[in-house]
Design a protein that fits this description.
- The protein has 3 helices and 9 strands.
- The chain has 150 residues and is α+β, with helices and mostly antiparallel strands.
- The chain has a 5-stranded mixed β-sheet with strand order 5-8-9-7-6, with helices on one face. It has a 4-stranded antiparallel β-sheet with strand order 1-2-3-4, with no helix packed on it.
- Strand 8 and strand 9 form a beta hairpin.
- Helix 1 packs antiparallel against helix 2.
- The model has no long low-confidence stretch (mean pLDDT 90).
Length: 150
Amino acid sequence: MRYEHTQKAPFYLLLLAIASGMFVGVWLTPEPAAQLSLAIGGGAMAMLGLAFRHLMVRDEGEDLLVSFGPLPLFRRRVVYAEIERVEQTRSSWLDGWGIHMSPSGGWTWNLWGFDCVDVYLTRGRKLRLGTNEPVELEAFLRQQITSAKE
């Protein structure tokens, strides 16, 4: 069984709007130091907007690739043999979106929404993967756990 899913979200539009505003600020500001600061900040916001347009989760054979994109600055691989169990759950607004340590423990990789799958790894680590297909992702990972243990 292969798995690949790409979740898209409109959050990147906010980042691109901020970048556009900063670039307009470069044009309107006469001070060179302020222009440079706005240009660098606008470039960083544009890069983040392109980096967080979608979240792709894909089976890579021995591991699961989790990647934000289309600018692939942030990616992570999870080896199936290191997964102890998975659990479909929902995050709260405290868990937020993006990549960060979660108040509920472990790392969160979430783009949009509150549906997620908690992936419990060896050595007590946890990874929370946001998805708009939690049933399908959980079923796929359960199958991979069984296959990895055989």
